[in-house]
Write a structure and sequence with these properties.
Elements (H helix, E strand, L loop, with lengths): L14 E10 L9 E9 L3 E5 L6 H8 L7 E6 L2 E2 L5 H7 E5 L10 H5 L1 H5 L4 H14 L4 H4 L9 H13 L5 E5 L7 H18 L2 E6 L2 H7 L2 E6 L3 E6 L1 H6 L4 H7 L3 H6 L14 E3 L4 H13 L4 E5 L5 E6 L15 E3 L10 H11 L3 E5 L5 E6 H10 L1 E3 L5 E4 L1
Parallel strand pairs: 3-8, 3-9, 6-7, 7-8, 11-12
Antiparallel strand pairs: 1-2, 1-4, 4-5, 9-10, 12-13, 13-14, 15-16, 17-18
Bound molecules: adenosine-5'-triphosphate (ATP).
The site of adenosine-5'-triphosphate (ATP) has 12 residues, from helix 1.
């Protein structure tokens, strides 16, 4: 076991949850479900528990909110031993969201979300306002959804309500047990992105369980990779887990494709990208031709057309792009793919290029203005160079 023996912290990080030699043996079971687990979960971060089925992830979650009691070991919440906190208080401080939402089927969406606020004795007006606020936050129109029952919602909508319910009492900590597990990939991605947006605002301490290493890499500030018998094999940032697996079992779980996964950790906003020539949309034919000629001379295949606010509009092929029988003629406009913004990753860029059979994507800043171009060759070079660098030249991370 690495790291989890001696919990690692960045200076200044406050520990919200401390698991200290936590062990759980279920009666009649030969081995422990969780064994001597020691782990610090920093305040305001998402820690993902990932690992094969039956390795003790759910048991650890249930130990944290005292749905079950440990055989031995301690759990501290914000410095307090949880066994000293009355259970009803603990439930208020810890929100719990589970697979398929775990909603009460006979209660309306509003009643489901209001569970904890009602427990807390809030008045009706405050509860109604909170329910509507949360529905908005998880992307459901309060007018349309507050009166429905779970059976009248899609799986994804149920999960959204489940997340809203877990957030309702404004808990310090959220435990999320495969909250997006039963969702198709497209909706799952949308939910993940929305949840990350919510988290960027709320800064909750979140423990998130998943089977899926890609989800772990995307959602986690840190990942605890569990092996059989409730042992943590590695507790690390996603970057380090992918770049430097602690042992063979970790490497096997991560599986093939670690290099590609690492692309999903590199945000385009923090990368230096080359800025090939542009031509303004308003430029007259002569200026266009001159720009094309200059670009072709320096070996460029395309020039980017930008509008008056420097937002990319289209590509313009240079003479260098012309290949007999295929490809556009010189001066021909080629439609632009959606440009990549600062929040997109190298993985998004590569995916975008592969799925649209393009060899480059335009890169824009947060206001949609042209920053540069990322080509297939540049991505390949970045992978092969084993290192990514930020715009200021400092090393971002290994790839
Ligand atoms: N109530 C219980 N009684 C007896 N054994 C249990 C109980 N709950 C879980 N276990 C066992 O404890 C071990 C850990 O289970 P747990 O549900 O924590 O794993 P998990 O990693 O969350 O699995 P999954 O990913 O499949 O949900 C398993 O071997 C399981 O069979």
């Amino acid at each position: 076991m690495t790291q989890s023996d001696t919990p690692q912290q960045t200076p200044g990080e406050r520990t919200m949850i401390r698991l200290d030699k936590l062990t759980k043996r279920y009666p009649g079971q030969p081995g422990a479900a969780v064994e001597e687990l020691t782990l610090d979960i920093p305040a305001g971060s998402i820690v993902v528990f990932v690992g094969p089925s039956g390795c003790g992830k759910t048991t650890t979650m249930k130990l944290i909110n005292r749905l079950i009691e440990p055989t031995s070991g301690r759990i501290h919440l914000d410095g307090q031993d949880v066994t000293r906190i009355p259970v009803h208080q603990l439930r208020r401080r810890i929100g719990y969201a589970i697979q398929q939402g775990g909603l009460f089927p006979h209660r309306t969406v509003a009643d489901n979300i209001a569970t904890v606020p009602k427990m807390l004795g809030w008045d009706r007006a405050r509860i109604t306002a909170r329910v509507d606020e949360l529905l908005e936050m998880v992307g459901l129109d309060p007018e349309a959804y507050r009166g429905r029952r779970p059976g009248q919602l899609s799986g994804g909508q149920q999960q959204r309500v489940g997340v809203a319910r877990a957030l309702a009492g404004d808990p310090q900590v959220m435990l999320m047990d495969e909250p997006f597990g039963a969702i198709d990939p497209l909706n799952r991605e949308a939910l993940q992105n929305e949840f990350l947006r919510i988290q960027a605002r709320l800064h909750k301490t979140i423990v998130f369980v998943t089977h899926d290493i890609d989800e772990a890499v995307k959602m986690g500030d840190r990942i605890a990779l569990f092996g059989d018998g409730g042992r943590v094999l590695q507790y690390d940032t996603p970057e380090r887990l992918l770049a430097d697996p602690a042992d063979r079992a970790v490497a096997e779980f991560i599986g093939a494709g670690a290099a590609v996964r690492r692309l999903s950790l590199a945000r385009i906003g923090s990368l230096a990208v080359p800025g090939p020539p542009v031509v303004e949309r308003a430029a007259d034919a002569q200026a266009r031709a001159a720009a094309l000629a200059r670009a072709a001379e320096s070996g460029e295949e395309y020039v980017l057309v930008v509008d008056e606010d420097r937002r990319p509009v289209a590509w313009l092929a240079t003479a260098g792009a012309r290949r007999p029988g295929e490809g556009p003629a010189a001066g021909e406009e080629v439609p632009l793919l959606t440009p990549m913004g600062p929040g997109h990753t190298l993985f998004d860029a590569l995916d975008h290029m592969l799925s649209s059979n393009a060899s480059a994507v335009a890169v824009v800043d947060g206001d949609g203005r042209y920053r540069g171009v990322l080509g297939m060759d540049a991505v390949r070079t970045l992978i092969n160079s084993q290192a990514l660098h930020t715009a200021d030249g400092s090393k971002l991370q290994e790839v």
